[in-house]
Amino acid sequence: MSRTRERFRRVISGPTCVLAANIFDPLSARIADMLGYEVCVLSGSVGKAVNLGVPDIVLSNMSDVVDHCRRITRMAEVSLMVDAEDGFGNAVNVRRTVQEMEAAGVAAIEIEDNAVPKRFNVQNPGLILKEEQVGKLQAAVAARTDPSTVIVARTSALAACPLEEALDRIRATPPRVPRPSCWRRCHTVVPISLQCTRPPPSPSACSIRLQRRGTTRPSLLLMGFAF
Fold this sequence. Notes:
By secondary structure, this protein is of the alpha/beta class. It has one domain: Phosphoenolpyruvate-binding domains (TIM Barrel), CATH 3.20.20. The chain contains 10 helices and 8 strands. It has helices spanning 3-13, 26-34, 44-51, 62-75, 91-103, 130-143, 157-160, 163-172, 183-189, 203-212, and strands at 17-22, 39-42, 79-83, 108-112, 150-154, 175-176, 194-196, 220-224. It has an 8-stranded parallel β-sheet. Strand 3 (79-83), helix 5 (91-103) and strand 4 form a beta-alpha-beta unit. The chain is globular, with a radius of gyration of 17 Å.
């Protein structure tokens, strides 16, 4: 087990809100580390813009992202969660993606259920079958050489499916949940740690808000900015 992965697990298992740094390169990661951030996040859109100078469409591959992560973790001992898109292919590809990202020092790997290539500005961007996503996540877990590596399931089902169908997908693959209005319903089917991409004015206020909405685990990972 690595220290950075143990730190990430401690943060998401805790009872309080934690503000994460949305970093984009080795320098921003070092600044975040110096400022005391416990968790850093490298999102797909930010990674593509900074590393390749391209928009958030499928123009990067697994090797691009792994190299980006390796340069970050080499310069800063941060607990890094990385957006691994759809795992860059099927379950076999996901297995290699996890192995390469683990070797690059990543603490948590996020895998989404959007169909690739992505379609933006449409009502339904398209999701892969629930069974396929479950298979990908099972492959990701099995591929870990360090059991402390966190596999994060991400879903767009709440925006793309009827609520009951979305909850069925969540029950099968506990995900990152973006809509506060659905938190209570999501916690009726699975005790998940929630992650929010738009932080409120204060993490403490957000923790209270979560508890009032009936969440069973008021841990919230907030993606903020280091500077």
